[in-house]
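Below is a filled-in request sheet from our internal design queue. Each sheet records the structural input a requester submitted and the sequence that came back. We keep these sheets so that new team members can see what a complete request looks like end to end.

REQUESTER: design group, bay 2
PRIORITY: normal
MODE: inverse folding
CHAIN LENGTH: 71
BACKBONE (tokenized):
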């Protein structure tokens, strides 16, 4: 993904980097809240992340980041 592009394709769907979410939302969602939401934490302030997954690239292949990895 070139540095000037925000979107990436993951399994045929457009995705944004997790690190961009606070910036895109005007910091209404903090990095800590994102991590708690993706960890499916009981105290997660944003239930909107339910059903969403994060991926990281292992080589050129997207690999799902498991909720337990966000703890």
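RETURNED SEQUENCE:
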């Amino acid at each position: 993904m070139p540095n000037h592009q925000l979107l990436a394709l993951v399994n045929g769907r457009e995705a944004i980097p997790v690190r961009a979410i606070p910036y895109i939302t005007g910091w209404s969602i903090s990095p800590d809240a994102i991590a708690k939401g993706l960890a499916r934490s009981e105290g997660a302030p944003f239930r909107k992340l339910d059903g969403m997954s994060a991926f990281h690239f292992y080589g050129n292949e997207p690999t799902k980041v498991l909720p337990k990895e966000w703890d």
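SHEET NOTES:
- The beta strands are 8-10, 13-15, 54-58, 61-65.
- The first strand starts at residue 8 and ends at 10.
FILED BY: M.R.
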